[in-house]
Amino acid sequence: MSDATLHDHDARLSACPACDAAPLAQRIAAGGGGQEDIVLSLPTIHCATCITDVERVLNRHPGVRDARVNLTLRRVTVDAPGMSAEELIPVVEGIGYEAHELDPAALSASAADRQGRDILMRIGVAGFAMMNIMILSVAVWSGAEDATRDMFHWISGAIALPTVAFAGQPFFASAWRALRHGRLGMDVPISLALVLASAISVYETVQSGHHAYFDAAVMLCFFLLIGRYLDYRTRAVARSAAEELTALEVPRAFRVTTAGDEPVPVVELVPGDLIRIRPGARIPADGEIAEGSSEIDRSLLTGESIPVPARPGVALSAGEVNLTGPLVMRVTAAGRDSSLARLTALVAAAESARGHYTGLADRASRLYSPLVHLLAFCSFLGWYFATHDLRLAVNVAAAVLIITCPCALGLAVPAVVTAASGRLFRRGMLIKDGTALERLAEVDAVVFDKTGTLTMGVPQLVSLDPIPAEARPVALALSQGSGHPLSQALAQALREAGTEPAPLSDLREVPGYGIAGIWQGREVRLGRADWLGARHGEATLSASWLSLGDEGGQGAPIRLEFSDRLRPGAEACVARILGSGRRVMLLSGDAAPVVQDLAQRLGIAEWRAGVTPVEKAEALRDLRQQGLHPLMVGDGLNDTAALTEAHVSISPASALDAARTASDMVLMGSDLAPVAEGLELARSARARIKENFAISLVYNIVAVPIAIAGFATPLMAALAMSLSSISVTLNALRLR
């Protein structure tokens, strides 16, 4: 059994049922899954009930051997030999959950959380060794002399040397990499202090000296590892957003040939190929409709919440979803040339650029490390030329290195970020990136997406009043027979009003138009206004029509209006941000009237409608070129490039996997208020970080002269260093 498989088994034993940390997707990555496994993204699941519902309906479906949901990644992996994702997606969507196919081959092997466990293991070893060495040190401090003292020193060395070699490995490896590239990182003085303290202690033990500093070396290692772990915990163990986007690309298509439909990998498609797109399937490439009529869900790419009609000649983009009717499309671009692939490349480039941000601690260490080495070296030279005592000069130099060791500096940022992260988490916001809080404090402009961010992204019937009581059962029977988002919203409103469906016959959906059926010998329809005989100009973007009449559909059409409900806390959040003096913008792929109405409701003066994903990213880039530090809040695939282009980004937990991965922070609940709170807390956190740097500076101003003067042994230096670290941590905890 492989290590990854063993870890997967351990995770199953330790995880709660609602957080199953060992999905089949990890078995695939570890080499334990079969090639028949299907991975579906489930962006709307959020709790244990969702897991149970999805797994139950899939496991009951004929041909499915096993289905496991991963709530963290919002995915389900299905073991169903011989089946396709197109067969399983309607099963999941039939119980109300959105589903998209992911390409398992595009998902990189998910390494287990080895780094965190590795650091914790080293902390445990260092802590256990430190306790044992301190017991021996107490005996020496209490007056043990000669052979007894030497024996305790040898025992301490036997414990300390392998401990420092093992627990200090992260610092040694980092320092070696820095030196190989000709630079001095923060880990170079740390490593030098560990090596010097250990070497001096061995020398003192061999010479039967009165003092050995094994306890100082191990204690130093222990506290520094705690700082390293706090820093690690603030960073996301998540895949690149570009990888998530790649996985969203449809892995295969059905090419139309003289012999019939032929399944082929999308990478083999060339311009001019004809491919068949079934209802409910995602568009695998860019192209133009050659045959058929349907409705297209473009929300992944544009954020437009209302499906658009599609007929021959209409251009389609990879990543869009065909809703109602079968289509034949002529390919114009596929694979790396598709719009989705170009968006992926844009995201990857933006991620790389944003990764160049340097945190406050990193900037401070660039000046700090050379200064520490210079002080230690000057102390060594000064004491050696003054006394010609090499042993004393090395001891003083080691004490200077230890007492100036950037432990407090290393803890200054992660301690504050950890405290602030805990407070924000309790308010419903999860920080994924270690530098996100620092970047959030610099924000002076906030850009919001509309659908799914400021609004819930789900159509809602404005009122049932236009529908006569006798027509409501017919309306329910029609609406629940269609998968159109507006039909589903109408059906939900009617069911909540206690309506029972009327018995209809010959129920059929007309792709691109609506749904029709026979009631009491007459044809009734629910669908597009022009299909129902509405007069020219009566239709609006946010309206659907219901007609009860004869076979010609000549009855008076009833106008039903839908709206997108505001996300809880949206008004208060925007008002609070505007009140802080920050600039607020609204960028949306929706139509201008809808965007303008929302902007006016929220008091947002700057807004743009019909914005493409590339234009959103360009808008964020323009803000940065103006010297601003924009925060982007978005949830869709169309926002992913903008999320990575922004100075810092936030997405709701209901967002698409790629958007959540691209963002620095995730809103765990539906309330938008934590965004405004996070902006204020970030500024408070930055103030605490600067206070911690001040504490570290004052400590060094007081302690360094004492060490240079020769009044501090390496042990005293380690104790002083620990005191400074505790002070920094306590100051950070004030944020809680």
Automatic annotation (TrEMBL):
InterPro entries: ATPase_P-typ_cyto_dom_N, ATPase_P-typ_P_site, ATPase_P-typ_TM_dom_sf, ATPase_P-typ_transduc_dom_A_sf, ATPase_P-type_domA, HAD-like_sf, HAD_sf, Heavy-metal-associated_CS. GO terms for molecular function: ATP binding; ATP hydrolysis activity; copper ion binding; P-type divalent copper transporter activity. It holds the Pfam family HMA. It is found in: Cell membrane. GO terms for biological process: copper ion homeostasis. CDD domains: HMA. Gene3D superfamilies: 3.30.70.100, Calcium-transporting ATPase, cytoplasmic domain N, Calcium-transporting ATPase, cytoplasmic transduction domain A, HAD superfamily/HAD-like. It comes from the Bacteria. Keywords: ATP-binding, Cell membrane, Ion transport, Magnesium, Membrane, Metal-binding, Nucleotide-binding, Phosphoprotein, Translocase, Transmembrane, Transmembrane helix, Transport. Its main location: membrane. Residues 36-100 form the HMA domain. One of its GO terms (cellular component) is plasma membrane. It is a multi-pass membrane protein. The chain crosses the membrane at residues 119-142, 154-176, 188-206, 212-230, 367-386, 392-420, 693-709. Belongs to the cation transport ATPase (P-type) (TC 3.A.3) family. Type IB subfamily. This is Cu2+-exporting ATPase. It comes from Paracoccus versutus.
